[in-house]
Amino acid sequence: MSQPIETLLSALRLVPVVRLEELPSASGLADALMAGGLPLAEITLRTPVALSAIEQLANREDILVGAGTVLNRTQAADCIQAGARFVVSPGLDPELVSYCQSRDIPVFPGVSSASEIQAAYNLGLRQVKFFPAEAAGGTASLKALAAPFHQMQFIPTGGISATNLLDYLDLDCTLAVGGSWMVKPALYESGNFSQVTELTRAAVQMAKRQDD
Q: Which of these, 26, 67, 165, 189, has the minimum number of CB atoms within 10 Å of its CB?
């Protein structure tokens, strides 16, 4: 998929955060996300098969795959080599950010304070991940933090589900929302991905209604 990640995020407003336990599930999960209307996946580096899954999905033309839970430059390099089109990290590491920028790979580091947002801004970033969203104060905290940084857009992630999705999407500073409620391994451990499709479709419809 040739569409830039920023364009997709602006249109879809959702990022499925995937913890993939078994490599054979990668293709089925991608199909389920596509069927639900979400041609995007962030594969987190929390399992041994993550890099292989990124490489497998990067070969598809119908879905844009990125890497999450990237902790340092070395991991970023491995993910980019595997085909990741974007990189997401839980915290702000200037070396990691600079490396991705030098490779023209969009990077979304996690921030949860004014100092971190300011540091990200001064690194040239205008879109960052707000993490952990609920634990860091939720929508009230994000709204307050975003006020002095009107040039910044945020991807709140952490503790978000269908019950509070719209609260975050309602904020002008929200670019998209990251979540795993529609892609939890327990939903498809039997090889049946129908629940993933159903939950994804419902989330996509909620996001579209919010934009209308």
A: 189
